[in-house]
# Entry
Amino acid sequence: MSQHQKSSVTALAVSIVAIIAFACDQYTKRLVQNSLLPNESRVAIPHLLRWTYERNFHGAFGLFGSNAALLVAMAVIVLVLFWISFREAATQSRLVRLAFGLIVGGAIGNIVDRIHFGYVVDFIDFYHIWPNIFNVGDSCVTIGVVLLLLSSLLASRRRT
# Structure
């Protein structure tokens, strides 16, 4: 397979995963917005999980302030840096393609919220385990980063 074909397959695979992640993120957020009022909670699994509609005006984990334009710009810069760092690995590894697709889809889901609403819709609340409320897009980004780390570890083991 030529380099151009590999790049095309890589872009298609990343795009499909990103579109699925984005669609799941946006769908679940709209369900929450249509079912709950801001700051309302409903228990999903007693003593473990509740759905809590929170409007998150801040960046990851409440960091980086609340300027929507700055947060969108930062997210785009991070996506570009990830792509520059992992694009070659993505042509060689399905795991990297999956990881990057999850990161892109989740990040774009949150970017769309910030542009459209000025905040991100969060709702997954493991209130006894984790202090922050998050969403499907956040989960996709986190899983994607973990998969990239795993891929890097596996690649370094293969080289030694």
